[in-house]
Design a protein that fits this description.
Order of helices and strands: HHH
Structural class: mainly alpha
Number of strands: 0
Radius of gyration: 28 Å
Distance between the termini: 90 Å
Strand content: under 5%
Number of helices: 3
Shape: elongated
Helix content: 25-40%
């Protein structure tokens, strides 16, 4: 009996927990191919490309060693 009371309490807590809608992007599926549709182009996209993390652009690397003034004057 105590086990069923705990399950009722746990179910109640799950139902009260708010769903954060701002974290979820709706995925629209193409009815024919059952592939997700890209929201921008409205064309079916491969699932691997849709779920792949986006690559960050690399900026210009700074010179790690500071070149002294006397070294730049020597030809």
């Amino acid at each position: 009996m105590a086990r069923s009371i705990k399950t009722i309490d746990i179910l109640k807590l799950f139902k009260e927990y708010p769903i954060h809608q701002e974290n979820y992007d709706p995925v629209i599926l193409d009815p024919k191919t059952k592939k997700p549709i890209d929201p921008i182009t409205r064309k079916p996209v491969d699932i691997k490309l849709l779920l792949a993390p986006k690559k960050k652009k690399k900026g210009k690397k700074d010179n790690k060693m500071a070149i002294p003034d006397w070294a730049t004057e020597i030809s």
